[in-house]
Amino acid sequence: MSDAKEVDFSLKVMIDKEKTKVLFAEVDSHFADILLSFLTLPLGRIMRILEKHYGDEAPTIGSLNTLYHSLANLDDAHFWTDGAKQTFLNPASSFEAEYERLKLDIADYQPARYFVCTYCGHRFRSVSMYYDSIQSCKKCGHNSMHEAVAKKGPQAASRDGVFTIHTKSFIISDDLQILPNETGILGIFRILGISDMDKAEPINVTFGFSEIMSLLKGCFISQTPFSDLILNKTRQANSVTVEPEAETSSLNQIENEHNPDSKKMILKVIIQKSTGKLLYAQAKEDFVDFLCSFLFIPLGGVEHLLGGKTPIKAINNLYQSTSDLVNDEYFKTPDMKNRLIKPNLIHGCTSKNNILPLAEECLPVGYVSRFSCVNFPKGQGSYLEGPRTYKVTDDLTVAPFCIVSIVSGLNKQKIPISDVKEEELQIGLKEGLGILKASLTSTTALTDALLDQTSIKQLKQELLV
Hints:
Elements: E1 9-16, E2 21-28, H1 29-37, H2 43-54, H3 64-73, H4 82-89, H5 96-101, E3 113-117, E4 123-125, E5 133-134, E6 145-149, E7 169-173, E8 178-180, H6 185-192, E9 200-207, H7 209-221, H8 225-230, H9 250-254, E10 265-272, E11 277-284, H10 285-294, H11 299-305, H12 313-324, H13 327-330, H14 336-341, H15 367-370, E12 371-372, E13 389-393, E14 398-400, H16 403-412, E15 420-427, H17 429-439, H18 445-450, H19 453-464
Antiparallel strand pairs: 1-2, 1-9, 2-7, 3-4, 3-6, 5-12, 7-8, 10-11, 10-15, 11-13, 13-14
């Protein structure tokens, strides 16, 4: 990894001047590695790095911003430990080693953590979020251990590629399809829907850190992120561009991976009858823990859970075209493609009863017997101390449950009690996937995920009666 200020990528870009559109860009493996790293970034990490770079101008990504900020603003007393809270506000990734070797550090990679024996100096790599302390040194037996973090400094980027083989080059479409150059001109034109090149013109474009961050941001606010960035199109949108709704078989695809022992959560929802809108949910800490788990899921993991059918076109294209690449020919290692399209989470971040089939990194043999837990006294994936009750609004804002505040809010919105209905819902795999999907694009995530149009019409009928 190099200093962000010193790295530039030279892209050969073909544009259609008449349509003011980027047709495609030709890139080397180093740029392709940066683009593929988007799939490895946990949702909470994306929130953090975009806000770090853009500040108040960071894009609104559905309900994820409000979820992230409300959890950050919860008093530390709500969490079992301060360490438990910090894990999802700055989530680690199972790709930290790869981030360190990228030509450009867009992920703000986290250096490796170690437990060091103060007696003999032997080091143990910390590879689990849950097992965060060590009892004794396996080499000398002493129990005088302390934690150390590897020094973060500029390093030379990997010359032989990180995700892809360094000798390969790729074509990137305006909407982030990635195709190998070997596909050939006719194959590329057919896939990208290009009929002729009479009015096309090649230009050279330089991409640095700011442009890469703009491209990451563009994935969430546009279906044509390259045109918007390279041709400086002006857009007023500051929220996600939603792909038209399509039938998805994601639920069927992951049924075999689902944990049949996971328990369904009970959610008490308060609905406005006249509009069919879910005003807020009354939730226990298990549901809020479930929402916390969203922040650990990489973009590629979200795509896997939703069968490659998220509502965001650019991310869908990047994921699907990566899945279509031939494994052995283009990827650095035989398992790299599978790691990208079905990425593991860092070990210890989700509960064993999590309703979503989220796979975590495996631990080395014998690791558990020597390590213990400090930050998670009630088990992995348990962040909030309970029993407690929370108010979760439609945009996934989490706050302590307070009757006075709720009544004041209803009065402020001029919603009479006669226009309010209370229902209990069970949250299982289908509902959990629905909330995750809606959180990417909608600021009414709970309504969109949990209330169908039929139930909304019934509520309005009740009001008329």
